[in-house]
Design brief:
The protein has 228 residues and is of the alpha/beta class. The protein has a single domain, classed as Rossmann fold. The protein is 36% helix and 17% strand. The protein is built from 9 helices and 7 strands, in the order αααβααβααββαββαβ. It has a 5-stranded parallel β-sheet. Strands 4-5 form a two-stranded antiparallel sheet. Helix 5 crosses helix 7. The chain binds zinc ion (2 copies).
């Protein structure tokens, strides 16, 4: 009940604003749309970070079960503001816009998947936020990749929020945190894992390990934003 009141109050206190310039009354104004922080060219095709001279540092952090990370934007400016507003400032009104921007990026670099699986929230976090932002975005992209939205494939135990931890702590914090639903036919399935933002890749790597152990044929990630 308290959570519901907080949400309604939040939506009243934070009306629709442009994710770029904060102007009221629009989620993205025409001027800011032309200045969105698209990912730069020349990133590693697997981990979507800037490649070093020799072995890719970003790839070194990823699970071998993860074939590639795709993202529409760099996690900065308007894209970062969209992610933060969606999650922490009752920004559900941004979901149609963020879904549209994800589909635009899929029109440029198409992907196909059998199952579209959002990175889950723990039950406690889902109750306090009222929605899983990754599931809302996954629902927007499933038709574009000709996949089926599969929200209940992964579940997540309650652990401290990843963003409060150092890179080294993030991996151990996630050990055993994800589980795959029993009785699902995942064998050979191409899974597209969806999240709002990928930072170190620890969360999506742990999800990919869990899906691979349950028999998934391949796992790719689609994120709204990639922290470079
Ligand atoms: Zn604007
Ligand atoms: Zn890489």
């Amino acid at each position: 009940m308290l959570d519901a009141i907080r949400r309604v109050l939040g939506e009243a206190l934070f009306p629709s604003r442009c994710i770029g310039c904060q102007r009221r009354g629009t989620a993205l104004c025409a001027g800011c749309r032309t200045a969105l922080p698209y990912l730069p060219r020349g990133l590693c095709p697997r981990c979507a970070t800037r490649r070093g001279a020799a072995a890719c540092r970003g790839c070194g952090h990823l699970s071998s079960a993860l074939s590639a990370i795709h993202a529409a934007f760099a996690y900065e400016g308007a894209a970062r503001n969209a992610v933060v507003t969606l999650k922490f400032r009752s920004g559900r009104y941004l979901v149609p816009l963020m879904g549209e921007l994800l589909r635009e990026s899929l029109a440029v670099r198409p992907l196909v998947a059998d199952l579209v699986v959002p990175v889950p929230l723990s039950g406690a976090r889902l109750r306090s936020r009222g929605f899983n932002q990754a599931a809302l975005l996954a629902g927007c992209v499933a038709p574009a990749v000709r996949g089926v939205l599969a929200e209940d494939v992964l579940s997540r135990a309650d652990r401290p929020a990843q963003r409060t931890l150092t890179a080294a702590q993030r991996r151990s914090n996630l050990e055993g945190a994800f589980a795959c639903a029993r009785g699902l036919e995942l064998a050979g399935k191409r899974v597209l894992l969806v999240d709002d933002v990928v930072t170190t890749g620890a969360t999506v790597s742990t999800c990919a390990d869990t899906l691979a152990r349950a028999g998934a044929g391949s796992v790719r990630v689609l994120a709204f934003a990639r922290d470079l």
